Amino acid sequence: MDKQVKQPNFWVRGKIEQRKFYEITLSTKTNIITFLFGLIAGALIILPFGLMVIQFLMIYGYDFTILTLYLTIIWVLIMLFNGLSNYFTVKLAQSYNKDMITLQAIKPKYIFFYQIFNFGFGLVSLFIIIFFGLRFF
Amino acid sequence: MIQFFKDLIDGFKKSKLSRKILYISLMFIYVVLMLLVTVKVNVEVITPGGVNAYVSTNEDLKQSVSVYVDTNNDVGEIFTVGVHTHKRISVYQYLISKINKDIDFNDYDPKTDLSRDEDIQLGKKSKDQSIINALIVAYNEAKKVNEEINIDYEYEGVLVALVQNNSKANLKPDDVITHFNDEKIESLSQFSSLNSTITDANTSIKLTVIRDGKTLDVYAKKVFSEETNSYILGVTVMDKYTIDKETVFPNFEIHQNYSSIGGSGGAMTTLAIYNALIEEDITNGKRIIGTGTISLDGKVGKIGGVSQKIVTAKLFAADVFFVGPEDYEEAKAKAEEIKAEFPVVKVETFSQIIEYLQGDING
User: Shortest CB distance from A52 goes to which of B48, B92, B312?
Assistant: First the structure.
């Protein structure tokens, strides 16, 4: 009788893949370049959405009843940015080190999902958003 | 880095057709979104804004308000109301504004209309003068209740608030015009009347001005304005009064707080100063919001964006809204449209605001 092995979900898979990536030792130069590239690429993709949110606030900022919705959108965008920047960091590291088998075996798409739903980062960013959001409004 | 992009392109080439279509569609959406948020249109939007308390008798708060009055009386909840204006908005902002009927639009021509910086400059000067007017009117009205209250002031001349780029008037912002062709200026209307007698670009006008504390003569010529189809000096001017701080009682301090600008808060600033001067709290515990400029004879003048101000007043739970006669109809219609629960009260003069509130107290 075939026994079906239950696959871990995307988030758990992402956590495992992320740990694998952290365990790989890359040169300092590669680390810095991939990290910066990840940030820039993530920011570029988020840019139009970020501008839309800012421009939305300029028009509808008078209506403080939308504060919760507005802060939620910012939080979602920050989480998305976190996912994207980590995804591109791994992708670039893989392009830089073609001969590293352990690095090539990492699946960045799982890291993307894991980082989007990263509880620790999510809580810290939510706290910062609420802190500054309430001060602003 | 190059290797990364090579991998990206290779990945794209090797992908299935459906994937390729998906990637191209996402890139197309990205470009469209970027265009929507970066391409600007020549439109000015006016949105509801916020409310501001300009006056306080609390020493701890004096740095955060425009006028501190040195009494122990309660100012009450009296607020001016402001709107936000945005010039040259993005296509995206235009589209999201269009779906809201509380937002107004004006065409904006960067060549002829005031820039944002000029608007701010004019707004600051209007607010400064509005506060002086409010102090004079409030002190004189409060003097009817308490004779110890006193304010003395004098007319300085016509203040140059803004100078257009094409102006040949040889004037600078903050100049105070005291004489027009050697005739002493007693009011803005007299200046306007003298100015209207010059109807060409060749006549040289002798203007005596106070600039940086020194008196000097400048010679101005007019320029043709296509907008008004007439010859103009190309300057924006307003009355300038100064208050004698030696004889004023009770004392006050003006703090140049420009978190909101413009002269539309004049009537409510007058009311707040008045309430700070008299012992009785004329607000009767109500939250009073209103709009309208104030002139030295106590008249409540026209302002802009009154519909947006009604929306703001509703958001800030006003108990009563005061408005000048020229803006009343628009204000009332908007209040009915949004089902505002507060009464919109038409007032022609500051005295009518006092009468209304006194009537409220007396039932």
Answer: B92
